[in-house]
Amino acid sequence: MRKLVFLSTVLFLTTSLYAQKGKSLHPKTKGKGWTDLFAKDLSNANYPDGIWTTDKEELTASEDQAIWTEKTYDNFILDLEFKNADGTNSGVIVYCSDMNNWIPNSVEIQIADDYAEKWATSAKDWQCAAIFGHLPPKEQKIVKKPGEWNHYTITCIDQNIKVVLNGKLVTQMDMSKWTSGTTNPDGSPIPEWLNKPFAELPTQGKIGLQGKHAGAPVWFRNMRIKELD
């Protein structure tokens, strides 16, 4: 009961913060409870050899293979920066319960170069800051153009997910409303490869980053996490 009350309080305070205009929606990540998502030598990560590398504290991949935390996370705030190339299509993966078959067994917060025609003309729930295939962001093209750094803050508390991109709260999801594996609550179709209803997915799991997908790289830096339980 104490944990439930604590998490409800955190969710209320987080929502209140998001409602206050003019204040930074990205947290300070140097305080108590914040740690690096991955060690500098990637010793606490699961990834295929020779794919993921770090240079000047920037993490990137040469192939379409994900990198995963060894640790399982439940409720947390994840704060990071990413940089797109021309045509980037990647993502931040949370609540993953099966790394070998992660696509239907996780939630993906989309990273995309919304300025590339291929993604600009795609479904809105394929664009940057969407919950991929399920929920588009409230605004499009909040992501910066290729070559510029973007700032993501993703808060996951049980079935509630909030996404802040470059200072704007753009996506809020209550997974319990996604009771179908084929149709979103608004009637739009869910891609057939995402056939597990979000309402039934575990709300704990590994955190991952998608690699060089769709032929374009992506870079990450300053990845910090704070657990809330």
Task: Give an account of the 3D structure.
The chain is mostly beta strands and 229 residues long. The chain has one domain (2-227): Exo-inulinase, domain 1 (Jelly Rolls). It is built from two helices and 13 strands, in the order H-E-E-E-E-E-E-E-E-H-E-E-E-E-E. It has helices at 2-19, 117-120, and strands at 34-36, 45-46, 52-55, 58-61, 67-69, 76-84, 89-96, 107-112, 149-157, 160-165, 168-174, 206-209, 218-227. Strands 1, 3, 4, 6, 9, 10, 11 and 13 form an eight-stranded antiparallel β-sheet that branches. A five-stranded antiparallel β-sheet has the order 2-5-12-7-8, with no helix packed on it. A hairpin with a 2-residue loop joins strand 9 (149-157) and strand 10.
